[in-house]
């Protein structure tokens, strides 16, 4: 009878299955032969996966070794969490893994023996997946002006396999298909930021154990002052009233002030109204010049100017008095 040893890597377990080939016993037995070797595995701590290994025929003696030492199973110690199944599979009731003790992690090899010889599998490593709780670097709040780039950065918790990084904004996954958005390593980069990019961002570290969220960080997108209505150049007659308009938008709300390039604003005859309009009353020739609206907030400054020309002569005011009124008619 000829025995072939099949070593399967089931999810989170090593399974060794012995199968006879052919329907009739051969005249001569043969030594075991490994036809499928174990694969490297990464498993979750505390996992207890099912095993589908089953015994079909009689099989040679199977032993497992970890890091060169024979693995103790339930056959030697009924309390062991490692079970050697009748099929030859090495089954873990759970994966034991701690900060100081890692008894299940290592390099495994199986050895199948019968009276004609033995077969040794290739090495296969068993690693335990972990994902720590603490982020090595959490993202920080960022303040930018619209149109500027914004960069947030985090370093995920230590883990194995190394965690991948994604980002959430206001609890929704960030769409990295947006051509303005790049996620590279632990960096989230947004070019040409918009007001709609503002919000609470969370860095997410993920591996097969699960995912961890960082503390949130806020992206604030301010807007520089922008003129909705600008002051215009004006020509006025002496003694007229003149209004220079200045309507601005921005976030934070910009402050507005006026200045005259040629000196001070006319004293007693200038007023800045609630809508930021500069009103000049009873204008004179000496009021001519350039008047500038200056708008400023924490992310920018903008200026817009208008000129004033005053026409003085030869215009004069005349008073007319009605001395008498005569009406003629037929009658």
UniProtKB/TrEMBL annotation:
Q: Does the keyword Signal apply?
A: yes
Q: Where is the signal peptide?
A: 1-22
Q: Which residues form the Ig-like domain?
A: 32-127, 133-220, 225-309
* InterPro entries recorded: Ig-like_dom (IPR007110), Ig-like_dom_sf (IPR036179), Ig-like_fold (IPR013783), Ig_I-set (IPR013098), Ig_sub (IPR003599), Ig_sub2 (IPR003598), Ig_V-set (IPR013106), Neural/epithelial_adhesion (IPR051170)
Q: Does Disulfide bond appear among the keywords? A: yes
State the UniProt keywords alphabetically. Answer: Disulfide bond, Immunoglobulin domain, Repeat, Signal
Under PROSITE patterns, the record lists:
IG_LIKE (PS50835)
Q: Name one Pfam family in it.
A: I-set
The name on file for this protein is Ig-like domain-containing protein
Organism (species): Anguilla anguilla (European freshwater eel)
